[in-house]
Amino acid sequence: MNSLTAFFIGLPNAGKSTLFNALTGRSRKVSNYSGITTDLAQAQMQIADKSVSIIDLPGITSLSPLSPDEAVTISSLFHCYPNIEANLIFFVIDLKRLTPSLALCLEVLEQFPDQVIALINKDDEGELGPQQMDFFAEKLRCPIVCLSSLNQESKVLKAALSNVLSSENFKRASKVLTPKSIQIISADSLPFLSALTNLEGKPIFEVEKEEDQVFNKLLKNTQQAREIMVKGLSQTRRAFSHKIDAILLNSWLGPLIFFAIFLFIFTALFSWATPFMDGIDNLIGALSGALAPMISNSMLQSLIVDGIIGGVGGVVIFLPQIMILFFLLSLLEQSGYIARASLITDKVMSFFGLSGKAFLPYLSGFACSIPGIMAARTIADKKERLVTMITLPLITCSARLPVYILIVGTFIPERSVFGFLNLQGLSFFFLYFLGPVSALIMAKVFRLSLYKGEASNFVMDLPDYQRPRLKAALRHSFQKGMGFLKKAGTIILMLSLVIWLLSTFPRTNPEFTADLNEAQAKALNLENSALGRIGKTIEPALRPIGLDWKMGVGLLISLGARELFVSALGTIYALGEVGEESDTLKERLQQEKNELGEPRYSIATAWSILLFFVFSLQCTSTLAILKKETNGWRVPILAFSYLFALGYGASFIAYQVLHS
Amino acid sequence: MKTKQGDTPLNLSQLRVGEKARIMTLELPQGIKLKLLSYGLAPGDSIQVIARSPLKGPISIQTFQDERIALRFAQARSISVARDMAQ
Q1: Does A596 touch chain B (CB under 8 A)?
Q2: Chain A residue numbers touching B25 (CB-CB < 8 A)
Q3: CA angle (A395, A398, A399) in 5-degree steps
Q4: Residue of A58, A112, A72, A107 lying closest to A89 (CA atoms)
């Protein structure tokens, strides 16, 4: 046999995913915080003449799962999932947290004695000598390799693995992983396991019969690990990390610095992105200006300029902001600060019935709800996890930015307030923070009603600080940017075409438009198109919130994905417009007139639209991930309904108040 | 600092920043006890409080093996400790 499948097992934040990325050339998200990996990933690689398939799993702290992400790993290990099995465990030991790593390693070795190879990771300074390695290998009774996934090239890492996978050790991978005995688990693990048997129906888990059986076992392993540690290695030094903590965890300075950091990130997000966004905007304008005269067929010209450039261009403009956001978040996550930020926010979160563990999911939600909802897997308490997930769509995700920027920039006057604040900026800030604030309020509402439960707990390890790697942050940001462009080039492009088709066909009989001028003819064409008819049908529902059928169609389409609102409006208004006097959507919206010749949209309609977007869950991907994470339609349906009601209600109030 | 030994039982939430103590018993749910232990906190260990958050927020401690752990005030209250005589 010349191929094998290996699991990566270890503590959270032991560097499993970093190692996995370095070895396989993949780019799983990594950072300096426990619980970044919440699902499994598999990749093939070639080590010497052997084909090795590696499965990267979420970190665990014992073989008795205490949160859904740990259950993923333990269920894989004990063969509870179809199609997931391995014949070798690469146990990743975190040199910076040696005792807990060794204690867990001993527990794993007990169940799978002949099928483990230990990889000591994070030997970034080359502390371990051959003597110590031999000592560890002897104590653990398994082959051992020493690595630094951070500093070593993938070639060096592969060579090290190739050495340890010598024929003798390779025999360890000769059969499928089989536990030696039934795993005793804590009763607290039961909610996370779907069954106590494996796929073949063989019993594999058993709840402890006497109190503290699992605890005492781990205690025994910990004591054994400490003995190994004391003889094997002198205490690691962390003076530097401790000095930083003295400042960042200071009772009063800590929260201040926390605010300063996040204020900086959100300010940078807008000020740094502006020049790039202007550049892209000009480029798109120039492109359609140059292309239009080259296409003689008016239908084709409309398709390309109005449909494709109008639709996709409106979305692509947000690329710089998305890349900057992911870049800064990556730097912050790598540094190890997120664990401290969770600690600092725990008190506030607990007031709303959540814990500091919800901080990272919420923070990820500023980029996109989907990784945020996945990150909620690290929350042990079931109700708390559900509340985190169901309120997460309220966090101001990056897909809302295009809409906010368009509507605020178009309808909110550029006036200064109190002499130094800009009204547009202020509105933006308000919208941005209305999201997370209402998420917390709704969390409290749910915790007092539907998901009532005891105050939960919060226990967290604080990793050492680490200098963030610029390269990793750039790569992460680039990847996210590419993903965004891919989405713009595929789904949004396709939907833009569909929107163009629906708003162009069916054509109105030319006889009806013969007597009209060009503008009237275009308007009639649009109104009689399929999209126009849909819009007219739903118009009665839109009147209370002050919108006409064009905006209404935009809202309807945005239920699929929020960015589509901008691309839909881009296409609709480009089609209804005559000549080239206004080449931006912004100008077109400002010039839109109603039947009486007055401006169609006012500040009241603007806030009506904006508030709808603050609350409403317009994202099919979020609904899909909610269904997947909760195994059913209940939660996604509940989330969509309460958020839609909130959105419509807020729009109604805003329009009625501002309109009068 | 004057402390009365053996008077009222002392718990972790009563320690000030910088104070050292020995963990006696953990009156906590099984799951939390397991988590704390796997982060390197066992009964009998000596620890030091390194930070406290305002308004009875989480307390950060450091184990004798340099592991840093944060836990809620309410949980710290359920951990009884004895001040280190060496102090």
Answers
A1: no
A2: none
A3: 100
A4: A112
Judged by CB atoms closer than 8 Å, whether chains meet at B53 and A104 is answered as: no
Which of A223, A457, A464, A465 is most worth mutating to test chain B (most B CB atoms within 10 A of its CB)?
A457
Are A457 and B34 a contacting pair at CB < 8 A? no
- Mean per-residue pLDDT, A451-468: 86
Give the pair of three-digit tokens for residue A30. 């990594």
* pLDDT tens for each residue of A197-256: 888 888 999 999 988 899 999 999 999 998 887 665 655 556 788 889 999 999 889 999
Mean pLDDT for all residues in chain A: 85
As a residue count, chain A comes to 660
What is the structure's pLDDT at B1? 46
Q: Does B50 touch chain A (CB under 8 A)?
A: yes
Query: Rounded to a whole number, what is the largest CA-CA distance in chain B?
Result: 36
Q: What residue type is A28 in one-letter code?
A: R
Residue B56 has pLDDT above 50, yes or no: yes
Q: Are A372 and A394 in contact (CB under 8 A)?
A: no
- Answer whether A462 sits within 8 Å of B68, measured CB to CB: yes
Find out whether B25 and B33 touch, Cβ atoms under 8 Å.
Answer: no
Whether the per-residue pLDDT at A103 is higher than 70: the answer is yes
Structural domains of chain A in order of their starting residue, each with its CATH number? 3-237 (3.40.50.300), 272-317+473-601 (no CATH)
Residues 6+ apart with CB under 8 A from A494: none
Q: CA-to-CA distance for A249 and A344, rounded, in angstroms?
A: 8
Q: Are B47 and B28 a contacting pair, CB within 8 Å?
A: no
Residue A142, token pair as written in the block: 């398994």
**Strand order across the beta sheet in which A3-10 lies:** A41-47, A50-56, A3-10, A88-94, A116-121, A144-146
Q: Cβ of A186 and B31 within 8 Å?
A: yes
User: Who among B37, B51, B65 is closest to A245 (CB)?
Assistant: B51
**A593 DSSP 8-state letter:** B
Question: Is A124 a residue whose pLDDT tops 80?
Answer: no
Residue A346 neighbours by CB under 8 Å, 6+ apart: A355, A356, A359, A458, B53, B57, B58, B70, B72
CB contact under 8 A, B32 and A459: yes
Domains along chain B with CATH numbers:
10-83 (2.30.30.90)
Q: What ipTM did this prediction achieve?
A: 0.89
Assess contact for A400 and A613: CB atoms under 8 A. Answer: yes
How many Å apart are CA A636 and CA A624, to the nearest integer?
Answer: 8
**At residue A300, does pLDDT exceed 60?**
yes
- Provide CB contacts within 8 A for A397, sequence distance 6+: A365, A366, A367, A368, A369, A562, A619
pLDDT reported for residue A1:
54
Q: For the beta carbon of residue A357, count every other beta carbon within 10 angstroms.
A: 28
Residue B69 · residue B57 · CB < 8 Å = no
Give the 3-state DSSP-derived string for A127-181, with helices as H, strands as E and coil as C.
Answer: CCCHHHHHHHHHHHCCCEEECCCCCCCHHHHHHHHHHHCCHHHHHHHCCCCCCCC
Determine contact, residues B36/B19, Cβ cutoff 8 Å: no
Nearest to A319 by CA among A86, A478, A179, A111: A478
Distance, in Å, from the CA atom of A626 to the CA atom of A639, rounded to the nearest integer, reads: 9
Collapsed DSSP state (helix, strand, coil) of residue A364: helix
Confidence category of residue B14, pLDDT binned at 50, 70, 90: very high
Cβ of residue A124 closer than 8 Å to a chain B Cβ: no
What percent of chain A clears pLDDT 90, i.e. is strictly above it? 30
